[in-house]
Amino acid sequence: AVTHRHKWEVNYGYKSPDCYKKLAITINGESPGPTIHAQQGDTIVVELNNALFSENVAVHWHGIRQIGTPWSDGTEAVTQCPIMPGDTFIYKFVVDKSNTMNMQAGTYLYHAHYGMQLTAGLYGFIIVSVPDGVLEPFVYDHDRSIILKDWYHASTYEQATGLSSIPFGWVGEPQSLLINGKGRFNCSLLDSSVCNAKNPECSPYSLTVVPGGRYRLRIGSLASLSAMSFEIEGHNMTVVEADGNYVEPFETKHLYINSGETYSVLVKADQDSSRNYWITANVVGRKPSTPTGLAIFNYYPNHRHKKPPTVPTTGPLWNDTASQLAQSRAIKAHHDFVHSPPPRSDRMIVLLNTQNKINGYYHWSLNNRSLTLPATPYLISLKQNFNGAFDQNPPPDSYDVENYDIYSVHDNVNTTSSNAIYSIKFNSTVDIILQNANSMTTGNSETHPWHMHGHDFWVLGFGNGTKFDMVNDPKGFNLVNPIMKNTVPLYPYGWTALRVRTDNPGVWIFHCHIEPHLFMGMGIVFEAGVEKVGKLPKSIMGCGETKRLINP
Ligand code: C2O
Ligand code: CU
Question: Measured from the CB, is residue 449 less than 6 Å from ligand 1?
């Protein structure tokens, strides 16, 4: 195992990923940022200098469990104080000592975990390959990666202000979809100083393939809002990896992908090689008003930017939830890599997902609690017993299951903002049932991709437009070959059931990966085995009550 050292400067920069010039947050001048490559067991060191002159930053390593280094998780207010302007912070972690038996070579992500800086463009890939001599359960000749993003022209500061104002200002649908940081916006009505269709920065991404080649394509999404369907015209894809876990292979024409998910698919370049093909990304799950995201599947030696002779597909119907659900249900652990979950759980937490108003402000809540983050990071206040740093009354494990009608609009007048956390027994098995419901709009329930820090969980089952039945639904759980993931969708009016072993000491956030939803409180924080966490580095301190630890 070796150590990879990276020096990052996080700064503002004007970017035109879809031809429209906009202020973005960049790493070493780039958005998406540089890809981190490593082998399983290697150590990554990122020396991050915050060159943003007017705001803090923190960066999360999405899917990396941070075993033994919970303070490197990069979650502001949970595991560290934010990095202040001008400061340098060193993230150091291993990818990944395996504590459970599941392997961790695979496809991961990183992104900002502060304010709305993911939406502003701070994101990228972490690609972890298997150690030398270890074989993967599939073969390919070439390894390529594609990161998906939705892109907004409004400043993220205005977006954040709208979300926390009366009247409420929703961010709306994105202006474009980016494939490897490139998209297209119709500039025809705008001045070329603002939007220039000829800017090479926004010429579509082109993936060059050799005829007959076998490709592993790693696809990750760090969308702010949009779920997408991804397609390569005329080519089927075989899904083989999900969130760093091997999948029992299945073939599909289009891949649904939510923010925070990663997949590897195998693609064979076996079509008519005299032409190019469209790679497309389309919004699903919400009524789209964003044009199709385009890239080119380029057969060598055709010109990279030669347009395919066809009209790009607009993909499957945005509201075909059944087909999205069918994909989720098709994702099972590869038969040689099955790690069966414990047959029983020690505790069940049912989380009702609702939209609410608190004092006239819109929020998202779980069991009538909307998450607000404290000034002192939980990891530090728990280790130091700063009992006053956050609300000590734990949030509820369930809601009024009997009486709550998930199909109607509720005022949920008892909802409060809270920074209380769940305390979960170390090395125990917990079932989490995510229960969807109607939002504050009649006849509307949204898809939420839920992401857990510090753990992979087993995906035990999905409910299709129903309330979870405590007696009968657990009988249908897949305890034989469930996939392990770190991000999973919750579909409209449905439920999603997870099982997790709390085997990683620390404090972890579990939240909706839609950045504006997290901003509006859609998450919970839990602690397990925090007393087993080693000595905290001073570098994570300096805010809230931790000031007195560094300047006694
Ligand atoms: Cu990728 Cu807490 O997020
Ligand atoms: Cu959400």
Answer: no
Provide the token pair at 106.
């695979």
Ligand positioned closest to the Cα atom of 79: 1
Q: Which domains does the chain have, with CATH numbers?
A: 1-135 (2.60.40.420), 136-332 (2.60.40.420), 347-550 (2.60.40.420)
- List, for residues 81-106, the tens digit of each pLDDT value: 999 999 999 999 999 755 444 557 89
The atom of ligand 1 lying closest to the CA of 118 is 1
Q: Are 467 and 435 in contact (CB under 8 A)?
A: yes
CB atoms within 10 A of CB 301: 10
Ligand 1 pocket member 363 (CB < 6 A): no
ipTM at complex level: 0.97
Q: Confirm or reject: Cβ of 513 under 6 Å from ligand 1.
A: yes
Segment 409-466, tens digit of pLDDT? 998 989 999 999 999 999 999 999 999 999 999 999 999 999 999 999 999 999 999 9
What is each CA distance from 239 to 218, 230, 236, 259, in whole angstroms? 10, 12, 10, 17
| Centroid of ligand 2 to alpha carbon of 176 (angstroms) | 20
Cβ–ligand 1 contact at 62 (below 6 Å): yes
